[in-house]
Design brief:
Blueprint lengths: L2 H14 L4 H9 L20 H9 L3 E6 L7 E5 L1 H6 L22
Antiparallel strand pairs: 1-2
Helix pairs in contact: 2-3
């Protein structure tokens, strides 16, 4: 099998993959957060299932962001460009490593 057909098959698989309902709820919560930060808890205050977080990371929709000093076993993540795309959104321009939004320069 050629590399080209392997590449098309991989793209077809990526296009067919869609988040489950719990994964989508988790990812959508990052849309309204600075830097696309994903929650540790759901809307009802329960911890997001680790398997949900791990599946989103495995699919490339989320990425680990930083270590939580209070609970090192919790994985703090943010949306990736692929995560925004699977939700039908365009990622914000560039998000710095610290998650702080860029400020527009004043024109002189």
């Amino acid at each position: 099998m050629s590399q080209e057909s392997d590449s098309h098959r991989h793209e077809d698989l990526d296009a067919a993959l869609r988040p489950t309902a719990p994964q989508r709820r988790y990812l959508e919560r990052g849309l309204s957060q600075p830097g696309g930060k994903l929650p540790l808890f759901d809307a009802d205050g329960r911890e997001v299932a680790p398997r949900t977080v791990q599946a989103c990371v495995a699919h490339g929709w989320a990425e680990p962001w930083f270590n939580n000093p209070i609970k090192p076993d919790w994985l703090v993540c943010r949306l990736t460009a692929k995560g925004y795309a699977v939700l039908g959104r365009t990622p914000p321009d560039v998000v710095p490593e610290d998650g702080a939004p860029k400020r527009a320069r004043k024109k002189t």
